[in-house]
Design brief:
The complex is a heterotrimer. Chain A is mainly α. Chain A contains 13 helices and two strands; from the N terminus they run H-H-H-H-H-H-E-E-H-H-H-H-H-H-H. Chain A has one domain: ABC transporter involved in vitamin B12 uptake, BtuC (Orthogonal Bundle). In chain A, helix 11 packs across helix 12. Helices cover about 30% and strands about 25% of the residues of chain B. In chain B, about 50% of the residues are buried. By secondary structure, chain C is mostly helical. Helices cover about 75% and strands about 0% of the residues of chain C. In chain C, strands 1-2 form a two-stranded antiparallel ribbon. The longest helix of chain C has 27 residues. In chain C, about 55% of the residues are buried. Classes of the chains: A mainly alpha, B alpha/beta, C mainly alpha. Chains in contact: A-B, A-C, B-C. The interface between A and B is medium-sized, with 26 and 31 residues.
Chain lengths: ~325, ~500, ~325
């Protein structure tokens, strides 16, 4: 690429990595097992679930929008894939993952239509879509945990290893790599942040802004669905509200990674750092065996401190 | 006229910098009670920065401000207002979602967050009735008012606060001549009652009519202050520009008979804003669209660029009927239409992004163009003499003129067949204007068809090969060659058919 | 008149919808429009209405508050310890509960105004802290509220549900007077155009802080009223109320871009949302279908509200909506 395409490394996206290293070092003083290969490998595996969701959310947040339908795209994909795999039929089992991803893409497009065509604030529209999906799930499963089980592929993707590296982590990195290629090698990444800064000027530059918005929401939907498939593989089942605990950490990971919640500025590298940071933070807090209450408090405070650091750095610079 | 000895506001050695840009450098300036003090300068000369400092919107980087002889730091507009320094901004201090009445009460001095003061509303209404503002309903939302009505409300709002120093920043730009005269009468009365007035306007004859003293600013420095009448027009202009500009416009070539048609509009119409417009754009010609603001000229450009739904009439290109339904279609190589929109800050550019990113945004994804190739931008960067540290610099850090150069380059790099420009020189310094004019003429010579919307009739006269004058959504007069004169343009703009001696006065307004 | 109707168009629609829903609710209810039925309904509506008011104060200044539910949970847990005993003890307890709400709001406000972090992100993080504090107080649901006080405030006054009296009092004694002050006007001004408000001499930072403090106060009131209705403390009530409070303000015609909408609209939105739920309970719809229909109605209402965008003939007009 030419000089014009050159990108400068962004300090904001390095902050969460520094935070992650500090967490590991600080935690290892009290709990030496944190430095062990087993523990760290396990963290990479667990972070893949949040990581996939956060990759999709990064695209949407770069646009200046937000996707609150993550929980039930995740839950829906998990239910869909486990019920297909649970039939025992070979063809249906093979279709489990593609069907779940297609489901994610479709819901993503529904999100995109509301936001790009009807111009409904994404926060409201995706919230409504989320509650409709919840309704469908309840109607479908009768309010009980859905029957069905994960296919072997799903279980392997979530819990298997390849040369000692967790398969889930490899999936996460592969998706991140493809997304990075898409963002840098086509105009897509450029369009995303241009829309995030100024949608009108981008439209007037002859960019089909609705298509970009559809695509971003659809990709985000696929990411959430993939997260659901892996999570169902991990638990070997789908369960009610399995996505709810992921919504806020997803947004937090993206923001800690230096992506502006107002859109325009941000990076995938930062998001990956943010995911590692949040996963480790949660994990170390639970290793310390402190109560739920203190875990919540510490989690919130550390996020606030990270964000205040971002503000301070900008004021200083 | 009584002029007091102590200045209401005195700036001593004041500088204001934004990042690397110096908006004001080492300015000494004073404004006294009982005088109307006009500030003259080109865009980017520092006039608005000065106004913002005096009204407390921003604070100086160095130097200090005295009010009534005591040093103060004017930390906020509320602080400035409490000292009687009231600024009338171009239109920005009205809240769009509130009603006129609510806006008049907003921030009325001495009330803070407590109970609202309804007395200011009556005072403001009395002022409105003196400036033809009777028709403005107190309960109307400000967003639903016209620009002129908003300016009237803004004037009433400022005057109802009993200023000791009234700051007017382009306060009357949308008002017609008779209203402007009434506003001036009010301002003079205040002056005679001992109020100081700071006044910015781009209309030179307004300054001549109103000002007692004039201060000239150039490139962020205070050049000179003198009594009105001390210098003639030409001398003042050269002080403003800092150099003599002899040839603002490039020489007009002789008209080419039967130049090739690129686009022709036949009976073009849209909604109830535009009706039965027929315009032919020819290769190598600069076609002008003139008239008062908002008579449908803008919609012609928007229609050609695919921004309007359900238009009437035909649009022909090379003899084929075409439908442009999206900017993406317009910019494709088959059509090759480019639009440089009117508002560069919100429509033309993504201010937060770098120059390079902005320039590439239009070219990205267009067939046969490599947006990453600097060579497609360089000729225009050179021709327009774009001043920047590097192409990675953020566009918001550039001056208005340089921003417009980026907006132009972004579209020129596509090699369009037809360039649509909406008032490309509005609010831009003279030097940049000459560069843009020269470039447009050279583009035309190279075979591009240019459609230029302009509110400056000098541009229509000296730059355009023919001009269409709009009134109320229709072309009322088509002028070409020697017929493009100020008299003809003005008459047509006001929809009068004879040469109007009577209209001369209003035309300047 | 034209201006008045136009300005209140969204509220007018919301109120008409509410009346229609309420009539069908009372008509389908097997017991008919008795005081008892009305009281149960009004209590549920008021809890959400107070939460929606808290959200309204965040949204009107172009913010959003994801900690409304968390503040409710925290204040609910505090109330379950303190709102019991002698009159003086209960009065003290109520003051502490409301002060906690205001404190949470002020913390949010300080982080937004001086920490320069977007409201959505701030409240996302503080919500976690508030829920943590609530869990410290009540790891499992429990505690008690004074029954006499609860009865006094959740039954009826001369046949009119007390909750409706409180709703009227909030509008008449808080909102109407507030609307006549510089603060009330300033909230709208800051939400509609911060720049214009600043240049008009309004103290923007103070107004923003005040709006978050008011939001915290009403979230605290919502938590308190929830305690009175359930007479117990539960740290897990938050998430539903946060999301429903957003849905309620949107249904009530408050624009998420700030500066447009009224507190009464937010109340109407909350009442609509709760009435839909109640209506479905007695409508003979299979219980399992209810969440779906609820979601569908919400989505349809919002989509219809947005549909006029399709009639726009100039493509540039859709931006900045």
């Amino acid at each position: 690429m030419s000089r014009l395409m050159r990108r400068l490394p962004d300090i904001d996206s390095l902050v969460p990595y520094i935070g992650t290293i500090l967490l590991i070092l600080g935690g290892s003083i009290f709990y030496p097992q944190i430095l062990g290969v087993d523990y760290l490998t396990q963290q990479l595996q667990i972070s893949a679930f949040l990581g996939l969701l956060a990759l999709g959310a990064t695209l949407v947040i770069l646009l200046g929008h937000i996707d609150l339908s993550v929980p039930w795209i995740l839950g829906g994909a998990a239910i869909l894939s486990t019920s297909l795999a649970g039939t025992g039929d070979t063809v249906l089992t093979a279709l489990a993952i593609p069907a779940a991803l297609l489901f994610g893409a479709l819901i993503g497009i529904v999100n995109g239509v509301g936001v790009a065509i009807l111009r409904i604030p994404s926060m409201v529209w995706t919230l409504a879509v989320n509650s409709m999906l919840l309704g469908v799930a309840v109607l479908n499963t009768g309010g009980f945990n859905p029957k069905g089980e994960a296919s072997n592929t799903m279980i392997w993707l979530a819990t298997g290893q390849l040369a000692g590296i967790p398969a889930a982590f490899i999936v996460w990195m592969a998706v991140a790599g493809m997304m990075a290629l898409l963002l840098t090698r086509s105009g897509f990444g450029r369009y995303l942040s241009a829309i995030g800064y100024n949608e009108k000027a981008t439209f007037l530059s002859g960019v089909s802004t609705p298509s970009v918005i559809f695509a971003a929401f659809a990709i985000a939907g696929v990411c959430s669905a993939l997260g659901g498939v892996l999570l169902a593989g991990y638990a070997n089942q789908a369960y009610q509200s399995m996505g709810d605990p992921f919504l806020l950490p997803t947004i937090a990971a993206v923001v800690i990674g230096g992506t502006s919640i107002l859109g325009g500025r941000g990076s995938l590298v930062g998001t990956i750092g943010g995911v590692l940071f949040i996963t480790l933070l949660t994990s170390i807090l639970s290793v310390m065996q402190i109560s739920d209450a203190w875990r919540n408090i510490t989690f919130g405070m550390i996020i606030i401190v990270m964000l205040l650091l971002q503000t301070l750095r900008k004021k200083g610079g | 006229m009584p002029r007091s000895e102590t200045a209401i506001v005195r700036l001593s050695g004041v500088s204001k910098t934004y990042g690397a840009t110096k908006a004001l450098s080492d300015v000494d300036f004073a404004c006294f009670a009982g005088e109307i003090h006009a500030i003259l300068g080109e865009n980017g000369a520092g006039k608005s920065t000065l106004m913002k400092l005096v009204s407390g919107v921003i604070q100086p980087t160095s130097g200090h401000i005295d009010v009534d002889g005591t040093r103060t730091d004017l930390s906020s507009p509320a602080d400035a207002m409490a000292r009687g320094l009231i600024c009338m901004f171009q239109e920005l201090s009205l809240v769009p979602d509130l009603t006129v009445r609510e806006n008049l009460m907003l921030g009325a001095p001495g009330r803070g967050l407590g109970r609202l003061d309804t007395a200011v509303v009556e005072r403001a209404q009395a002022i409105l009735s003196q400036i033809d503002g009777n028709a403005i309903r107190m309960k109307a939302r400000v967003a639903d008012l016209t620009l002129a009505e908003r300016q009237q409300v803004e004037i009433a709002k400022a005057l109802s606060r009993n200023p000791r120093l009234l700051i007017l920043d382009e306060a009357t730009s949308a008002l017609n001549a008779s209203v402007v005269e009434k506003v001036f009468r009010l301002i003079r009365a205040r002056r005679d009652a001992g109020v100081g007035v700071l006044f910015i306007s781009h209309r030179f004859h307004e300054i001549e009519a109103l000002a007692d003293r004039i201060s000239i600013f150039r490139n962020g420095s205070h050049v000179e202050t003198f009594d009105n009448g001390a210098y003639d027009y030409g001398a003042i202009i050269s002080k403003m520009v800092g150099q003599r500009i002899d040839d603002l416009f490039p020489a007009k070539p002789d008209p080419v008979a039967d130049a090739e048609e690129v686009i022709s509009l036949n009976g073009f119409g849209w909604s109830d804003t535009l009706d039965d417009v027929s315009i032919v754009l020819r290769k190598g010609c600069i076609t002008g669209l003139g008239g008062l603001d908002g008579q449908g000229q803008g919609e012609v450009l928007q229609g050609l660029f695919g921004l309007l739904k359900s238009t009437r009439g035909d649009c022909m290109m090379d003899g084929w009927k075409i439908t442009v339904n999206h900017p993406k279609a317009a910019k494709s190589p088959t059509l090759g239409i480019a639009l440089v929109p009117e508002d560069r800050k919100t429509e033309g550019l993504v201010l937060e992004q770098s120059i390079a990113h902005n320039m590439e945004l239009a070219a990205l994804g267009v067939e046969g163009i490599d947006a990453g190739d600097p060579a497609i931008y360089q000729p225009f960067i050179d021709a327009l003499e774009l001043k920047c540290d590097s192409l990675d610099q953020t566009v918001s850090e550039l001056s208005g003129g340089n921003q417009q150069k980026v907006a132009l380059t972004k579209w020129l790099s596509l090699g369009p067949r037809c360039m649509l420009l909406a008032d490309p020189t509005r609010g831009i310094d003279v030097k940049t204007k000459t560069q843009i004019y020269a470039l447009l003429r050279r583009l035309a010579d190279s075979g591009v068809a240019i459609l230029l919307l302009s509110t400056d009739y000098e541009e229509l006269i000296h730059l355009c090969d023919d001009a269409h004058i709009f009134y109320n959504g229709r072309v009322v007069r088509q002028l070409s060659g020697a017929d493009i004169t100020a008299e003809n343009i003005i008459a047509a703009s006001l929809n009068m058919h004879e040469t109007p001696a009577a209209a001369e006065g209003t035309a300047h307004a | 008149m034209r201006d008045l109707l136009r300005a209140n168009q969204r509220e007018t629609i919301a109120f008409s919808v509410l009346v229609a829903l309420l009539v069908s609710y009372l008509a389908t209810h097997p017991a008919g429009p008795t005081t008892y039925v009305m009281t149960i309904w009004a209590n549920q509506c008021l809890i959400l209405a107070l939460a929606a008011i808290a959200q309204f104060f965040a949204v009107i200044v172009r913010g959003i508050d994801l900690s409304v539910g968390a503040i409710m949970a925290l204040t609910n847990c505090i109330a379950s310890y303190l709102v019991i005993g002698t009159g003086a003890e209960m009065a003290f307890g109520i003051i502490v509960v409301l002060a906690a709400g205001v404190g949470c709001g002020v913390l949010n406000g300080l982080l937004v105004v001086y920490g320069r972090i977007q409201p959505i992100v701030v409240t996302l993080a503080t919500a976690s802290v508030f829920v943590g504090l609530a869990l410290l107080l009540r790891p499992t649901p429990g505690g008690q509220i004074d029954y006499d006080l609860a009865d006094a405030l959740t039954l009826d006054v001369l046949g009119v549900p007390t909750a409706l009296v409180i709703t009227a009092a909030v509008i008449g004694l808080i909102w109407v007077p507030l609307r006549r002050t510089g603060l009330g006007l300033g909230l709208y001004a800051v939400g509609s155009s911060e720049q214009a408000a600043f240049q008009s001499g309004m103290p923007v930072a103070k107004i923003r802080l005040a709006s978050f403090a008011l939001g915290g106060l009403f979230a605290g009131l919502a938590g308190l009223y929830f305690s009175l209705v359930t007479t117990t403390g539960d740290a897990g009530i938050g998430p539903n109320f946060t999301l429903n409070s957003i849905a309620a303000v949107v249904l009530g015609g408050v624009a998420l871009r700030g500066g447009v909408g009224t507190l009464t609209g937010a109340i109407a939105g909350a009442f609509i949302l709760k009435t839909i739920g109640a209506l479905m309970f007695f409508s003979g719809l299979p219980p399992l279908a209810q969440p779906f229909v609820e979601g569908l109605i919400l989505a349809a209402a919002i989509a219809i509200g947005g549909a006029d965008v399709l009639r726009v003939k100039n493509k540039l007009e859709v931006f900045g909506r």
